[in-house]
Amino acid sequence: MTRPLLMILALTLVSLSAFTQIRQAEKEMTLYNFAEAVTLLQKALKKGDPVQERAIAPLLAECYRKMNDWFRSRMWYQRAIDLGENRADNYFYLAQAYRNTGNYLEAKRFFRICDSLDPKNPVAGILATCCDSAICWMANEPAYEVGNMHSLNSPQSEFGCIHIPAGILFTSDRITEPDQEKRYGWTGNDYLRLYLAKPSPSATGKTGDTPDAIDFAFFLAPEIFHGLGDQTWHDGPVSFDGSFREAFINRTLGYGDIAKRDPDHTRTHLLKIFTSVRGEKEWNKPESFFLNNRSYSVGHPAISPDGNHLFFVSDRPDGFGGTDIYRCDRLDGVWGTPVNLGPVVNTPGNEMFPFIRETDELWFSSDYHPGFGGLDIFIACQVNGIWTVPRNPGHPLNSSYDDFSAWTDSSGKEGLFSSNRPGGMGGDDIYWFREAQGHRGTGAQDSSEQLVVGSNVIASVAKQGQEADSSFTTAPLHPGTTEKVMVSGYKLNQSYQLENIYYDFDKWVIREDAKPALDSLVRILERYPVDVELGSHTDCRGTDEYNLELSRKRAESAVQYIISRGIDPRRITAKGYGETMLINRCSCQEEGSCTEAGHQENRRTEFILRQPILPGSRPR
């Protein structure tokens, strides 16, 4: 066999080997073994084939994204785009990676590109606006002080931390022995276990005898907490009632568990809740909670101090998005039907890691409510049975990274949370926080209020000075518009002009250059339950009667366009103002005093956001 033929055969074998590694990596990804998939893809990448690199880059980007390694994810999404993979989702996840690593300007730029490539999906446009908000919020006075709990953390992840009489109990996938064979394929670390860190005998001040007595500086090295977490797969986090007599444990069971199968027949292991009651000497064997299901996950339990209200997270099909928070109440020892907390708390994104205080104050994390990036911690209160708009407590409690799994003492002024922000020991670390002395604000939404209509919370008031969407400019106030409540940066009952919504002379057809601004209004209506009035105006040419009719047709054409994008027509009204509200001196009283550009300024459309009509009173 000649040398060239040997080289061709060798190259063919190398190519086949790389192809096999890519296919195997894709299989591992369907099994959620992302750490193993990365190893296979990196081996294939070393072959240096640019065609294979184009196939490998988006796969590596996805693996690192699922592993919350946003820096590497950002690098590989950028590489995929450079190699011609210019899909909207690649731009979206690249923007997410920039946002989740604190680069809000680049994140906004890529969210805008994604929005232009996929205008029917409103999320990218919403997150672009959130980037502006985050920049403003970073200038606020910090509401809390935070610090790393170094004695509790490891190079792996620690989260689900709570303070109990014996110390700090938390969940970790740390590797305790160097030669340990057992590994979880998603992260490459050990399975989740419960660990307890006891107070150090040298602790001063608070002694650790009660759940509120905590000194963040003095804890011994953590040890495995036996009695609740002695199974093969994942254990934790856990929640206890106020008497420390009943425990609710988050678990994922092993291969013996029958779980749902995806369309490609891949087995999915679901989150489940187990309960245990403490006996005289030890905890009883955990038992499966009645809400566990083979079709969806039920996890992240948070029991109220009185033991009668269980909050949990699920991806049940009746939810609003990825994972929602639910509540299940116990009356006379019998658990009732779970209830979704509703669209004020839950979103099209993921809400998780609830914690409930005695005062009906709910702490949880979300990747969709306006925040700094990744998961942010939010606080909502229940007032007369209605949940208030979740409040973002601001930085440094929240960051552009994942901030989650908060626990507080009974005062709510200090506690624990987890974050994968830089500067930690690796993975997710446990941090302490306490309210900053002398702080009067409330974090990211310092000057915020909320608008409640009936049983519906409409929106948070935007912080004064918050930048509004560039598609809108302030128009002259109509009489009586003094309402200060704002939605997405715009005051209710105040008129705003839609930029570039102009009409050709004597026409009422929506021009192509008008559609982007109308699409921006559509995104607000999709995000917030408000009504809108569209008012159109003409220039001074023509009779009063004709101009009123022409402006009415122009307003109706804008309404029809918005309806065509899926907005309920009952939420939109159209009004024609004719030439009664000119915005310049083109009044046609003096011939030749106005340019065509001046006339065009008057041929415009404005919008006013209104409180929705209460259910039952809206005309049908």
Protein traits:
620 residues; alpha+beta; Serine Threonine Protein Phosphatase 5, Tetratricopeptide repeat; Neuraminidase; 60s Ribosomal Protein L30, Chain: A; five-stranded antiparallel β-sheet; five-stranded mixed β-sheet; 10 helices; 30 strands; 25% helix; disordered C terminus
Give a structural overview.
It is a single chain. With 620 residues, the protein is of the alpha+beta class. The chain has three domains: 3-137, Alpha Horseshoe (Serine Threonine Protein Phosphatase 5, Tetratricopeptide repeat); 144-446, TolB, C-terminal domain (Neuraminidase, 6 Propeller); 456-610, OmpA-like domain (60s Ribosomal Protein L30, Chain: A, 2-Layer Sandwich). Helix content is 25%, strand content 24%. It contains ten helices and 30 strands. The chain has helices at residues 3-30, 34-45, 50-66, 70-82, 88-100, 104-117, 123-137, 515-527, 544-564, 596-602, and strands at residues 144-148, 158-164, 167-172, 193-197, 223-224, 234-240, 246-252, 271-277, 287-288, 298-303, 309-314, 324-331, 334-335, 339-340, 351-356, 361-366, 376-383, 386-387, 403-408, 414-419, 429-435, 450-453, 456-460, 472-474, 486-487, 490-491, 495-498, 531-536, 572-576, 605-610. Strands 10, 11, 12, 13 and 14 form a five-stranded antiparallel β-sheet that branches. A five-stranded mixed β-sheet has the order 24-27-30-28-29. Helix 1 (3-30) runs antiparallel to helix 2 and helix 2 (34-45) packs antiparallel against helix 3. It is globular and about 95 Å long. Mean pLDDT is 75; it is low at 5-14, 204-213, 261-267, 446-485 and 613-620.
